[in-house]
Write a structure and sequence with these properties.
149 residues; mainly beta; Protein CBG26691
């Protein structure tokens, strides 16, 4: 084990920086999604998946989020649905309307949508390709009791 005489650290308060942006954004996770999106048409699905708040952001000169990083998938929840992407995602705040324009690449298509509030989240892990088998598969044979009377 190493010991150090001095250690320097820097703390960054992302919440204060986001609050300075004219466009609204909400960082979602599994604990707060129902609080923010309880009336969303897809809340049943969205509340069942594991979500975590993004941790690594890029900002513009107006303190608005322009992109964020996730371990696996980036989620953006729109007023009438949601999209997720492993690749590019760009947010741009229109200072005249105070709305975000979201640009994503999903399945080879570019999606652009303007939203009043940018609801963003991360899906933290890649699902296994072949789930592990814990127990042997059991096939049941069903038959009618009336055949034996």
């Amino acid at each position: 084990m190493k010991t150090f005489d001095k250690m320097d650290a820097v703390c960054v308060d992302y919440a204060n920086r986001i609050d300075k942006c004219q466009c609204s954004s909400v960082l979602l996770d599994s604990d707060n999604i129902k609080q923010h999106l309880s009336n969303h048409s897809k809340i049943g699905y969205l509340s069942m998946i594991i979500l975590q708040e993004p941790e690594s952001f890029t900002y513009d000169e107006n303190s608005c989020i322009t992109s964020f990083e996730c371990p696996y998938l980036k989620y953006v929840i729109f007023p009438d649905g949601y999209e997720f992407s492993q690749r590019s995602l760009k947010l741009e705040c229109d200072l005249n309307t105070s709305r975000f324009t979201v640009q994503m690449a999903v399945n080879g298509k570019n999606i652009t949508e303007t939203v009043p509030i940018a609801y963003i989240a991360c899906y933290p892990m890649q699902p296994p390709r072949n789930p592990p088998i814990d127990e042997p598969i059991i096939n049941f044979l069903y038959f009618s009791v009336s055949n034996f009377t």
